[in-house]
Amino acid sequence: MLKYEILINPKWLKKLDNDIWNDELVPAVLKIGEDRFSIKIAYRGNVIRDKKKKSYRIVFQKPYKVNGAHEIHLNAEFSDVSLSRNKLSLDFFDRIGVISPHSQHVLLYINGYSKGIYLEIESFDQYLLEKRKLPDGAIIYATNNRANFSLITKKKEIKKRLDQGYTLKYGDKEDIIDIKNFIAMINALNNQDFEKEIPHVLDVEKYFRWVAGAVCVQNYDGFIHNYALYKNGKTGLYEITPWDYDGTWGRNLHGRKLDYDYVPLTGFNTLSARLFHFKHFRKQYKEILTSILENDFNLDVQKPIINELFDSLKPHMSLDPFISSNAETLEQEKRVYFNFIKKRSSYLKEELDLFV
Q1: Are strands 238-242 and 139-142 parallel, antiparallel or unpaired?
Q2: Which of 6, 136, 157, 251 could link 233 by a cystine bridge, Cβ 3.0 to 4.6 Å?
Q3: Backbone φ and ψ of 32, nearest 5°
Q4: Are 354 and 265 in contact (CB under 8 A)?
């Protein structure tokens, strides 16, 4: 496991701690092996900022890019005793053909003090597109649960703006207009026009792969939050990518167990509801999910993946001062994961038989 050392002037560290909700970046140095990089750093996330083990946003300064990335995130994974749900989920999406940030576990030290095991995650931005040799295109983050593809919020309130819940990560003002038009189209077109127009705006096949991924790992928030939209510059179609998937594999974001049938077969948001109105779209989704259950989301495939990841973490658990997890904890959590996969996959297969 790589060791990351951050060296930061105590006054800047104090500035971060004085206002944990401030997103302002402060200067520091990141050392990886013999390499030293000038960076800027800030706390990131929402719930995690109140925890004793915090997550960080790192933006490279000199050099401007490292391994093709200008920005990375170091996630504490504090509410996950296995430190693994996020990585397993992002890797799963990558496996089933959804653009997904890559990740790796690292040991983090700040000014000589161990901060424990962190998950380094790629930032989904223009540099990721460049690194993956994907066409340039706008990237829009779904930054809160108003990003539900609807005109109405989760609390049944009418939205003040069509782009509520979304933040432009990369692009220009025209891209905000485009997302507003997309939301308007989803909600305003009659069925006939929607069926005709949606394939010209959305990569439906890739969208269904994303829905299927979120359905399999059962991310309750994933359908209205924790994703980014990418407008492929070559096709002109929206694609979608996952983000912050710690509330998965049988647990919620706080680490509490969820029943294996907590999330329905189709997930839930306005866009999916409109697509599933049409028989040919339901057939397409059924074929995608059936293939994923057969080839990707089952114990034969996932068990060795989980075993390998957990075995890589075991020797380092004692180095994390903020967690009480150990090798036995991981073995216990394995059983939670395996039981979830077995029951969840069986449940989804039964539901698919009724999905016509």
Answers
A1: unpaired
A2: 136
A3: -125, 105
A4: no
* Closest-CA residue to 325 (of 20, 53, 4): 53
356 burial level (CB within 10 Å; 0-12, 13-18, 19+)? exposed
| Per-residue pLDDT reduced to its tens digit, 152-194 | 987 788 988 999 999 999 999 999 999 999 999 999 999 999 9
Give the amino acid at 17: D
Structure confidence at residue 48 as a pLDDT band (50, 70, 90): confident
Tokens 């599933």 correspond to 276
Residue 93 structure tokens: 């999406």
Evaluate whether residue 325 is within a structural domain.
no
pLDDT single digits (tens) 109-154: 999 999 999 999 999 999 999 999 999 999 999 998 899 999 998 7
What percent of the chain lies above the pLDDT cut of 90? 88
Domain ranges, residue 271: 136-297+347-354
For residues 265 and 214, give the distance between their C-alpha atoms in angstroms, rounded to a whole number: 10
- Between the alpha carbon of residue 276 and those of residues 20, 55, 159, 272, the distances in Å are 42, 37, 24, 6
My answer on whether 84 and 149 are in the same domain is no
- Running DSSP on this structure, what letter comes out for residue 135? P
- Predicted TM-score (pTM) of the model is 0.95
Same domain, 21 and 77: yes
